């Protein structure tokens, strides 16, 4: 990432400082120590993220894994925290010791719902950041405008398989051994 020149009156902040801030109802990401406020999403963006959570949540019951929305951050760098649209964390994330945490370590699966204003960022910068997380097995990019799904799967320590699913194809997450029906991801009722 290119270095951003700062006014001498400002400084980059740490992840800990960022997590201690209260943004009220607003959401922000920390990128290389700089705070970036996030715009609200569209109805279709929100609907798809919720569809994923509603579909996969019951499938994960009893597995020690749980889906979370964009209120829970993923630390992708020394001074970077992203808010994936949906992230699946495993190893009993809902335990009492995690109840007040804003970061739970590496997610196993990350979902980003693409929008015209964030598509390039999601498919380049964020994708590479998520790939660098040792615990991430799959990254799913969902395009609401075409109803297409891009699946990026870890096949080795530094090896990945990156492909767009066929139109209408269900999404299989090998690391969780479950399949999300295409129709459920894009359901509008």
Can you offer a commentary on this structure?
- Helices cover 22% and strands 28% of the residues.
- The radius of gyration is 17 Å and the shape is globular.
- It has a 6-stranded mixed beta sheet, sandwiched between helices.
- The chain is built from 4 helices and 12 strands.
- With 189 residues, it is α+β, with helices and mostly antiparallel strands.
Please tell me what the overall shape is.
Answer: globular
Structural class based on helices, strands and sheet pairing: alpha+beta
What is the N-to-C order of secondary-structure elements (H for helix, E for strand)? HEEHEEEEEHEEEEEH
Question: Which spans of ≥5 residues are poorly predicted at pLDDT below 50?
Answer: none
Report, as a whole number of angstroms, the end-to-end distance: 40 Å
Strand count, sense and closure of the main sheet? 6 strands, mixed
Query: Widest sheet: strand order?
Result: 3-6-7-8-9-10
Number of separate helices = 4
Helical content (DSSP H or I, runs of 4+): 10-25%
Secondary structure tally: strands = 12
Share of β-strand residues: 25-35%
Arithmetic mean pLDDT: 88
Radius of gyration: 17 Å
